[in-house]
Amino acid sequence: MKTAYKQLQRHLLLLVTVLALGACSTAPVMQSDEVIEPSFPADRVLDNDVAYLSDEISDPWEGFNRSMYRFNYRFDKYLFLPVVNGYKFITPDFLEQGIHNFFLNLEDITTFFNSILQLNATKTVQTTGRFLVNTTVGLLGFIDVASRLDMPKHDEDFGQTLGHWGAGNGPYLVLPFLGPSNVRDGIGLGVDWVVYTEVINQLDMKDSEEWALSIMKAIDTRANVAFRYYETGTPFEYDWVKLLYTTKRKMDIEK
Amino acid sequence: MQRYLGFFLAAIWLSTGWASADAYDYPIANKFLATVVGTPPEYRADLPKKIPLKTRSIEIFEDREVPEALWYDKKLRYAEALQKGPAPLVFLIAGTGAAYNGGKNTNMARAFYQAGFHVVSISSPTYMNFIVAANSTGVPGHAIQDAEDIYRVMERIWDRLKDKIEVTDFYVTGYSLGGFNTAFVTLLDETKQTFNFRKALLINPPVSLYNSISLLDRMLENIPGGVDNFPQFYNRLVEQVTRAYKKTDTVDIGEEFLYQAFEAVNPDTEELAALIGVSFRISSANMAYTSDLMTNFGYIKPKNVIMTKNSSPGNYEKVAHRLGFTDFYHVYFYPYQHEKNPALTRNELIADMSLYSIEDYLRSAEKIEVMHNQDDIILAPGEIDFFPRVFGDRATIYPRGGHCGNMDFRDNVTHMVDVFSK
Q: Read out DSSP for B264-332?
């Protein structure tokens, strides 16, 4: 398994490098030296003393991020969504829900470790309770018994843990396949992944089984996100996603 | 219209005016609240959650060259839900800036599909994808041209469907600007006769486009401290919603949570009006900037600057959100139309973009019915009287609901379906 993951890492690194090198500039193309003034030029409409929401989020790698955003759209459209739709088509609804519950239950492993790291006894105890109930009575998590018993559900990850202890967002970052993130949450994803992988390794599964599990997890995650690239009806979609992602993460950290 | 504001805009209802004496028991008395919140779940019509509503896409203009920055939008997306056997077909037209798969169109699709109709749902001609893929000029907002563009789309979709399904009669409806479009589409159908609509229903249409856009632009003034303070307004709302979020036992930001959050935030009337203003401002920014890219008019973006796939809109985005519908009207829309027709005055254009301009037709068109609200916020004082005066008993004016807030209310859903079923 280790070699397989290393291979994956190498491929990812290669992809990121290629995209970074190929990332074009975010500047528009000027057709002549002198700009023909539009009806509402920015220097007349905008006020230097006024703060704009879009300036609140640091995005120094916008060129790379925008290229990656388009890459993710293509990956989504031509590979990921067709697979996800096929999965949804052939899987009966109850089974789909069961599989979703199963992965949500596995995510409680991440929530458990991060609740400890945030020194939050309530969340740690409640998450432990959920995990134990769902893994046993809930048949490895396929049935979400804990929610039926009104046991509170939490969602903590290492990005939130860093935020909890005062780390800022860092620059905005669009990750390959995974979408919007930032430096803090990107590091968080890496740490959570290592911990999760270590736990899964304890199960002594075969390589092929671990791969199957990872792929199923990815499909299940995408099947439960309604977002579709370039279908929000705004020419400013990249910026809206950045703002809403950042806002949502801020709320998650506070919760 | 609530799409972008997502989790912080949607939701709550107050217990104001809960029980009322008259038979119409839509529960929200505050017209701004009704507009933002819509219908509380327990008051909604009972509609099937899942219907076979499928997204399709179609190329309307084969030879159209789409600007590089809008490379992904060459095809028009729409949705269809088809019955197995012969059935009537209803076209749904979305409101300002809204998509074929927005909440209101989707709920109407559910209602009509359940009642046995084939359903075809189309985005507003002011929606980005429509402007890019289906607007003949790239400049939306013209009553007659928009109707022609919509009609062309309907014909092209029907071309695809006619060998697949059997249709007994055609119907058309739309809400807000889509209701206004419906009137002009029905008029166009009288001459084109592709569909010979048996009935048309206008839901909360504006009377004069110019009056309505002026009202909507002004709502932004309700942001405390004015539009310059938008970041503070946004951040304060997020703080309030976060407080509600922390209290819940769930990690989903779903509809149920939104209602709880709205109840906790409990915005006052000014804040609600500000939210409505923000929502329409987002629509206007999207529309104006998209159109500017399509025609290279030089409204926000300088004419000799080309936006690439990777270009950041940067300051153009900020400017776009600083300009309202009326700026678009006076500085882009009128000059554009004036160049085509030099005799056209500003006031004539304003008069043309209203239901007054086709009043005689509307008075005689027995097939057209209207569903409206006495307290609709997009109408200027007295404009609501246009409907009973022109349509007589073909217009139903509900006492409450704000702008489209009661569209999911069970009485209104029953009414909608009844108009086409009787």
A: HH---HHHHHHHHHHHHHHHHHHHHHHHHHHHT--SSS-TTEE--TT---HHHHHHHHH--HHHIIIII
Q: What is the DSSP secondary structure assignment for residue B335, as one 8-state letter?
A: H
Let me know: does A144 contact A134? Beta carbons within 8 Å. Answer: yes
**B97 has a chain A CB within 8 A of its CB:** yes
The answer to whether B212 touches B219, Cβ cutoff 8 Å, is: no
**The pLDDT of residue A21 is above 90:** no
Q: What residue ranges do the domains of chain B occupy?
A: 41-209+355-421, 214-347
Measured between beta carbons, the chain A residues lying within 8 angstroms of B245 are 251, 254-255
Q: Which residue of B has its CA nearest to A154?
A: B251
pLDDT at B264: 80
pLDDT in tens, B48-88: 988 999 999 999 999 999 999 999 999 999 999 999 999 99
Q: Which of B117, B311, B45 is nearest to A65 (CA)?
A: B311
Q: Find chain A residues with C-beta within 8 A of B72's C-beta.
A: 73, 229-230
A248 CB near a chain B CB, below 8 Å? Answer: yes
What is the separation of C-alpha B193 from the centre of its chain, rounded to a whole number of angstroms? 25
Tell me, yes or no, if B300 comes closer than 8 A to chain A by beta carbon. yes
Residue boundaries of the structural domains of chain A? 60-254
Length of chain B: 422
- Residue B304 to residue A27, Cβ atoms within 8 A: no
CATH topology of domain B41-209+355-421: Rossmann fold (3.40.50)
Q: How many CB atoms lie within 10 A of CB B296?
A: 15
- Among candidates A56, A239, A250 on the partner chain, residue whose Cβ is nearest the Cβ of B317: A239
